[in-house]
């Protein structure tokens, strides 16, 4: 189990509706409707910190805890996308590459769950601070299948050989 530290995807300066999900006011509201209706009472004579305000959305440092390691792989291996159940010789890179990343050429780490930040952003991995005792964290991982179809559209083929055998000879060949 690992903790993943990173900086989230930045969205710039946003209002309260986008930033906190505050309900929009009715259509005929005076001086704007994407606002907080009341930001506080007369006394205390200051705005409380809990009241939603406009400002920076995203690009914050966050820590995702307790991510399970599914696979540690070599980037130059031709079979790093294969499993014990799926013996097809394929790499971890999907057909056409990962969107906004490309082809995986270096060693990689496959984790369960989401990771903060955009593609290609640097992250920090650390061992979890608390000892893991749950059955889920101590159980052994057994991957049955890794999907390597195209992530750009509605990919249906796992390898280029599978695609060629389905379509047969084409005019371009």
TrEMBL record:
One of its GO terms (molecular function) is structural constituent of ribosome. Keywords: Ribonucleoprotein, Ribosomal protein. Pfam families: Ribosomal_L3. One of its GO terms (cellular component) is cytosolic large ribosomal subunit. GO terms for biological process: translation. It comes from the Eukaryota. Belongs to the universal ribosomal protein uL3 family. This is 60S ribosomal protein l3, putative. It comes from Theileria annulata.
